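[Automated response] Your request has been received and processed.

Submitted sequence:
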Amino acid sequence: QVQLVESGGGLAQPGGSLRLSCAASRTIFSADRMGWYRQPPGKQREWVAIISSVGDTDYADSVKGRFTISRDNARNTVYLQMNSLKPEDTADYYCNTIPSLEVWGQGTLVTVSS
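Generated structure:
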């Protein structure tokens, strides 16, 4: 079964932190690269962070130095640690393979506001 379940979003103040989790089915998690995407209100979805099966990572310039992607292969789970949050990080966050599948999870909403 193809499944992606994101969690961990919520309200954070500017400068705060959140940790997102994505539980994926084994079929999806076996992909060479997993990633986090986000869709800000009224904008298109964009990629945020990538992690390969061996742990190589890459980040969009807008989050570099603030976000950290990681994976737990035993739990088929991908994480996104978000620090120094900014209001412009407000978005629905999704995980998926890179490139993405047609199937998406429900996402998790991150709101950064004082």
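Summary generated for your ticket: The mean pLDDT is 95. The first helix runs from residue 26 to 29.
If you did not submit this request, please reply to this message.
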